[in-house]
Specification:
single chain; 230 residues; alpha/beta; Rossmann fold; six-stranded mixed beta sheet; two-stranded antiparallel sheet; 8 strands; 45% helix
Length: 230
């Protein structure tokens, strides 16, 4: 829960699906949203979904933006990426070219956001297509290690690891938000402590100055006049 203006609101995590066309981004999203497998390929321009979920016992919302993988939409992806908090980068295990192209998507995300620590997950989809596999687990895993991110293989058809990747990404986004919030709190506390210390120092200086003035003036003034410093 996030408190705003005294009201408790559900935390909302904004995830973006990226990857080449026909790798199964939409199929993964629809399987997660509705528990359905859509086999027909219909090129996506950009579809947005929202779902209320329970993550580790905590209710929250997830926004999923399913982006176009085709090259002709490359120019508009920058705007989509700016709104994202976590990225699921998908390729097809049956298409080596789509695996190679994940580097381009990652580079574009890092360029747009300017943040190498952006939550990023590499996903090899269509794990059910064993006989037509073109990318080995070891090859994809090595790429993920080079990028310092996790790698998971999924199947939108059988639902293998579908919930896993979305839940894992939401946890990464949630942890990043908590860390940022804690840092802001620590910075605010440090600033407040500094302000109190400064005020106390000023008060001490004024009090000391006042005593000096009182002592200096008391010698030349009549008895009965007192300067009281509170």
């Amino acid at each position: 829960m996030v408190k705003r203006g005294g009201r408790a609101e559900l935390a909302c995590h904004k995830l973006i699906m990226v990857g080449s066309g026909a790798v199964g981004k939409s199929a993964l999203t629809l399987q997660y949203m509705y528990g359905e497998f859509v086999e027909e390929y219909d090129p996506t321009k950009a579809d947005s979904y929202r779902k209320k979920v329970v993550l580790d016992g905590e209710e929250c919302q997830v926004d999923i933006l399913d982006t176009a993988g085709q090259e002709e939409y490359s120019a508009i992806r920058d705007n989509y990426y700016r709104s994202g908090e976590g990225f699921l980068c998908c390729f097809s295990l049956t298409d080596a070219a789509s695996f190679a192209e994940t580097a381009e998507f990652r580079d574009q995300i890092l360029r747009v956001l300017g943040d190498n620590n952006t939550p990023f997950l590499l996903i090899g989809n269509k794990s059910d297509c064993v006989d037509s596999r073109q990318v080995s687990y070891e090859e994809a895993r090595a790429q993920a290690e080079a990028w310092q991110c996790a790698y998971v293989e999924t199947s939108a058809k059988t639902a293998e690891n579908v919930n896993v990747v979305f839940d894992q990404m939401m946890r990464m986004v949630r942890e990043r938000k908590r860390t940022a919030r804690d840092r802001r709190g620590e910075a605010g506390a440090a600033g407040g402590a500094g302000g109190h210390a400064s005020a106390a120092d000023d008060g001490s200086k004024n009090a000391a100055g006042g005593r000096r003035d009182d002592q200096g003036k008391s010698r030349g003034q009549k008895k009965g006049f007192k300067c009281v410093i509170l």
